[in-house]
Amino acid sequence: MRVLITLTSVWTAKSVSFCTRWGIVIASLAMPSFALGTSFTLLTPENTQKIELAVWKYATDTPLLLETIDWFGNLARGAQESAAWAELSRLKFMQAQLEEDKKRRVGLFVDAVGIADQALKLNDSDVRGLFWKSAAMGKIAEDSSIVNAMRMLRPMQNMLLKVIELDEYYENAGAHRALGRMYHKLPGFPISFGSNEKALMHLKRAHELFPQDVITRAFYAELLYDTGDKAGARRHAEFVLITPIADEDAREFAEYVGIARQVVKKTGVIEARLGSN
Asked: For the stretch 106-139, what's the b/e string if a residue is b when 16 or more beta carbons lie within 10 angstroms of its beta carbon?
């Protein structure tokens, strides 16, 4: 089923530049812990900086990522902080994305789910835990049989809807973006619960919240093309093609640039900057 392939691109939501992501990090650190509903004893500014750097450079500095996982894993051992476990799940998710062997990759994503579960045992409304558990489940679904994958889709949908309810801004509106892609690519009733109407609602909202997000713009462009809005599709696709891509993001963003190029090609636009892969 095509959706099991296209879900690959739903989950990662790195900013185009580290400065953009870092601004969000600093803003979140400035929020009092009670506002986020969790203790941040382990997520000091210094520790958060290390984690964010490892996540940003995960594809270009794998040793740094692995060192960070070992360091923070030891630090979090026995901790009763849901946010700390959720961040460890996020790091494990990044490691899994780099694994080319299917069996080992699935095992790492299963580990990420288990770590996220630890976060959710401590706080079942932990936004990070909910998001990264659903993300890892999506990756497992891609490498699973259709029957097993379909079993995961409803729980993933429910977790993402809860993320939106709690904090729709998280990961550049990542839950809106993921749901939009899911609803777009899944078949509709009675086979599944795909819906272009719902897809448009979520991707439009993701774009409203983070209009510079390349992933959202690529998904939105493809959806608009499929629903007949070729002019809107071309506009979003061209945005993706002219947006500078940092070296650290090149591997991940190649897929979204590819989506944009296909939309531009199908809409008949002759000139489009090739951009970075």
From this structure: bebbbbbbebbebbbebbeebbbbbbbbbbbbbb
Of 115, 90, 92, which Cα lies nearest the Cα of 25? 90
CATH topology of domain 2-195: 1.25.40
Cα distance between residue 202 and residue 191, in whole Å: 21
Q: Which two tokens stand for residue 260?
A: 């944009």
**C-alpha–C-alpha distance, residues 143 and 225, integer Å:** 28
Report the alpha-carbon distance of residue 277 to residue 273 in Å, rounded. Answer: 12
Tokens of 256: 């979204």
* pTM given for the model: 0.83
Q: What is the pLDDT of residue 145?
A: 80
**121 membership: H or E segment, kind and range:** helix 102-122
CA distance to 159, 205, 258, per residue, from 14 (Å):
20, 18, 17
Q: State the pLDDT at residue 255.
A: 93
